[in-house]
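Thread: Newbie trying to understand structure tokens

Hi all, I'm a second-year student working on a class project, and my supervisor (Dr. K.) asked me to get a predicted structure for one chain before our next meeting. I've only ever worked with sequences, so writing a 3D structure as a token string is new to me. If someone could post the tokens and maybe explain what I'm looking at, I'd be very grateful. Here's the chain:
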Amino acid sequence: MCVLVIVLGVYLIADPQRVTLRAKMTMNLITNWLGRFRDTSSNTSFEGRGYDRLWKFPEYLLLGAGEGANYRWEERTIFSGENHSTPSGVLFSYGLSGTFCLGTFLYKTWSGLPSALLKFLLLAPLLYGLGTYNLRNWCLWIVFAIFNVITRHVAASHRESRDE
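---
Reply by user tm_fold:
Sure, no problem. This is what the structure looks like when written as tokens:
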């Protein structure tokens, strides 16, 4: 600890302008980050992130509207891109049937994992998906595949041990 204080002191004496500039840059980053929480523009609203399609187009909730062709929503929405949440995006694009299929896959994968640590690791991309539509990300599907293989391996080893 003492060495750290000495090194910082020498650095401050040797180049005080650089330290001051770095401190200002850090404060600006923090101020900008905090300002995002006060932002009430259309980009941060439910409508600005595409969630409003769920209640503006309820006829698609059963079987889904499909992916793409977002120009279909332009007359009644302010955001014409994809929905910014995996659960609501799946519900709108694939309907209750698609949501049920994905939910069943995730539930079976989750419940078959042998340890709390693996469940915790799978929780990270699932929580990330609440605020962004990450199903288009191929890395997510690799993660799902790995966890599903672990689940299947555990289930197969349980069956083998019961058969013996």
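A couple of things are worth pointing out once you decode it. The radius of gyration is 24 Å. The chain has six helices and no strands. Feel free to ask follow-ups in this thread.
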